[in-house]
Structure formats: C-alpha cells, structure tokens
Structure prediction request, 393 residues.
Amino acid sequence: MSVTTQYRTVEAEREWRPRVEQAVAAWRGAERESVARGIRRCGLDVVPIGEVEAFSAWAVASDLVTQILSVQAAPEGYSARVRHGASALRIGYGRDANDVRRLAAAYAGRDDDELGRLFGFPRCCVESFCNWWPCGRTAPDYGRGVVVDGFFPHTNIQLRHLGVRAVPHLPCSPLCRESERSAEDILDCLETRRDVDDLLAVLSLPVDYSVVGGVVRAETPHFTVASDADGEPDCQIMLGRPEHAVNGFSSWRAMSEAHSAVVVAAHRDDHYNDFDSVLDLGCGSGRLSRLVAAYKPGGVQYGGVDSSPDAVDVARALNPGGGWSVGDAIDYRRDDNRQLALVAVSRIPPYLVGPAVVYGYPGPGGVDGGTTVARYVPVSQLAEEVALETTCA
Ligand SMILES: [Zn+2]
Prediction:
C-alpha cells in the first residue's frame, strides 16, 4: 500500500509533520503497552523486518508471548500500517499463551467475533464490523456524506493510513462512547500527558474522508493523505468540529479539566444529594450535565437548553437519554430546589459572575483563558444568576 502525504503549505508542513510523526510513535507505543499492562488481552502488529529484533526485545522484556500470524501480508481489516511490498511480519502477542493460541486460530479462521474479544474491542463496534464489512459496506454513519459535529478525537480513524489513531478497532460510529472510553484506557499507557494531547490534537482536525474505487483520500486543513484502500468499501464521511470545539474549548484536555472541576465541585456541595435532576443552561454538547448526572447514585434526569441549534443537534446525537431544546437561559427562571442548574458562561470575565460559584479553569490565554467558565447553582438561585449573565453578555 502506498501512502502519500501532501502538506498544503511550507508553514503547515513545519508545524504538522513533527506532530504527525510524534502521534504515530505515541499510538504505536500505547497500543503495545496496553497489552503489556493487561488492559487488553492481545494485540496485533505489522512489524517491518528491520524492526522485528527490537519488537522481540520489547516483547521479551514485557513478558509477552508472540506468534507470527502471517508474512508480508497486505494490510486489511482492523489494522493497516505497512506499505505493499514491504517485508513485514504480522505478529500477534499477549500475556497469556492460551490467548495467543486462540488469537492465531481466530486469525486463520477469520473469526472476527473472537478476534474482537481477544483484542478488547467494544461489543457494539465488533457487531457493527461483523454486520457491515462482509457486505462490502461500512456502518451507516460512515456512508452518509454529511458532516459529523461533536465527534470525539478518540474515534477518528480517518487518519489510520498514516498510523495516527487512538483506538485499535474501527468504531461503529464517530460518536461511539465505548470507543472513547477504550481510547482513554489505552492512552493512559503513554508516558506523558503531552503525548496524549498531541495525538488528540492531530485527531481533532476536521477531515473530509472518502474511499472511491479503492482510493482513499483524507483531507485536513493542513495536509492531504492519499492511499490504497485496505479492502475498505466505498464511503464518505466528513468530521467537522470535535466535541470540545462545539463547547468552545481549544483542546480536549482543556474541556475535560474544566468539566472535572465542576463535577468535583458539585459533588462537594452540601446540597448535592438534594437534587434529583440536572438542568444545563448553555448546554453545548451536553457533556457536562451528563457527567454530573452520571455521578449521582442511580443516575438522575438531565437535559438542557442552548441558543445554538447546532449545539442542540450535537447534544441530541450524543445524549439520547437527555432532554434538549433550543432556547434562551432567561426562560428557565423557576423556583425548584430539586434541580441542579449547570451554567456554562462564555466570554465573561470570571470576576463578574461571583467567585463562590465559579469553577473555571486556569488557561494561559486564548479561548481557554478564563473567558469560558462552567459552574453550577441551585435552581432557586437561578433568577439572580441568569439576570447577571444577561446583563454581562
Ligand atoms: Zn461502538
């Protein structure tokens, strides 16, 4: 398989080539380490002949059992990384010899179900792959030709021909939460947060991906990747804005730090246990209220309102369990002590919104530099809060 990458400008190449190379190395490390640490039972790697010795040394040092599954195979199915014609070994590995034997048998028998289990792939994604791939189709989400906003960078596999990805499998959808979870577990194996951030930054780029007649084309704002398809059916998908961008954050990490701070703060509040639903004003993708609701024992109802119809579309797609509507926060003044209100505030200096209820995040500047804060208040205090915001906005 030949893969060519073309950068749009000299500046784009200067900035993004090192990040892409770093991301390839980071993913490769995370994928292998996740098996060494027992997060997944087995892994599979296509190892160029020149790297076999180093691979074997790593496997021995990590106490892993390895087995050659095929020699110089053309990449297909779940893993594609090596050029056609390159001498390479497809090697299965795991901590348990029995698992590796089962892997070899499943690989030889093309038992995708068993392979998915051994590799630790989410059930939903294995089922989707088993249902669609043999029919020469990708899952419906990959054939729509519409822009998907609110995707998680973790589920972006459209740059896999470059070796940049955050999950080892094909997610059933760009919005598959099981895949997001699985990616977080695997990326935890990386040495530094910086590696995770850089990998997710590459995967956060909007990408227009198509396979037509066996030719893959993935276009990002900074580079275009062309490749032979690895047996992949024709499809088109456009990933637009990742979830953190829908929520006005510069990076996935900035969003998850801000959200964690609010979840923790809500938890520590004396009245936290009194609330039986979560109302999210300025809900964006709905992630924050879903998290707060999920941490309540037994779960609670949640939903929200946002003035942006696009954001509400994303919230509906990502959180079918919640209730979402387009509207204005001011309409939600009400006297209900059983509701916990989450208020996401954009571009208002934190000192204007009352220090007691602000759980912002200390960004160095730019989008995250204290101009967007998320916080929670009891709904009974909401009239006052909303009035304040409206005045500031
Ligand atoms: Zn899935």
About this structure: The radius of gyration is 23 Å. Residues 3-241 form one domain. The mean pLDDT is 82.
